[in-house]
């Protein structure tokens, strides 16, 4: 073998890197394209080939990100720096509360507030982890009176979920910049529940015991906010769908005087974005990295869908198109 061959470092395809490190190919691509973690060699056929030090770096990035470091803050570091970090103390995931300060909570529903303040419920949480800033009788009172404090978490108890309830909760969340909203209900149709989940709300059905409720709050209080910001999902609440497939199909079939058939194109885009938004939600049950990716995709597609719904309303006003669901 020629001496030059001996000195040439081995190169690896992305699939081989994924198999060696246990990191999904999609994640490696994001780390490369979005955070410039790697600079693979590109062949004439535009294939990316990774070097041995790329594999070493990928393994360290995986280890550190699992320990709580945000990939955006460590992707540009060299191997020596990453190794020193990996040998240091593990990073504790960030919570909604700052050190020495409890998470602020607003409760809608007197019965729920009594449960939160009970001894049995308190046993399920760490001491002084929650601070109730507001207690409202019901959702109607909360919508009219507002909240006196600036709570991070909103806990709501309602008997039935209707589209109007979803709208009122979304308005309350957006008005007060709520980071997390939890809705406990007794009765609801599956369509409304799914719409609320797609909007970013945490929805649970009664009966739920005090210990289960405490565990639920405990699980959502600890949120890796760096990761949430990294994927653009921290504190984001996407408005629920405004128009059904039937309405969008009707609008798409209306002849228009607008150039390029804008009503049809916009209606079709909304339908496609809503489908992809739902698909991304269904993909959240995969691995941790894939879940973060699909949460980002769901947030982006939901935001785009909402923007195009606003555009459709503007087009409808210009064209005199009736968007009401009851129209024929």
CATH fold-level assignment of the largest domain: Rossmann fold
Span between termini? 78 Å
The number of helical runs is 16
Could you name the CATH homologous superfamily of the largest domain? Response regulator
Poorly predicted regions: 1-6, 90-95, 223-237
Structural class computed from helices and strand pairing: alpha/beta
What does this structure look like?
- This protein folds into 3 domains: 3-86, Multidrug-efflux Transporter Regulator, Chain: A, Domain 2, CATH 1.10.1660.10; 103-230, 3-Layer(aba) Sandwich (Rossmann fold); 245-319.
- The chain has 328 residues and is an alpha/beta fold.
- A 5-stranded parallel sheet has the order 5-4-6-7-8, sandwiched between helices. Strands 1-3-2 form a 3-stranded antiparallel sheet.
- The protein is 52% helix and 13% strand.
- It is flat, with a radius of gyration of 25 Å.
- Helix 11 links the parallel strand 7 and strand 8.
- It has 16 helices and 8 strands.
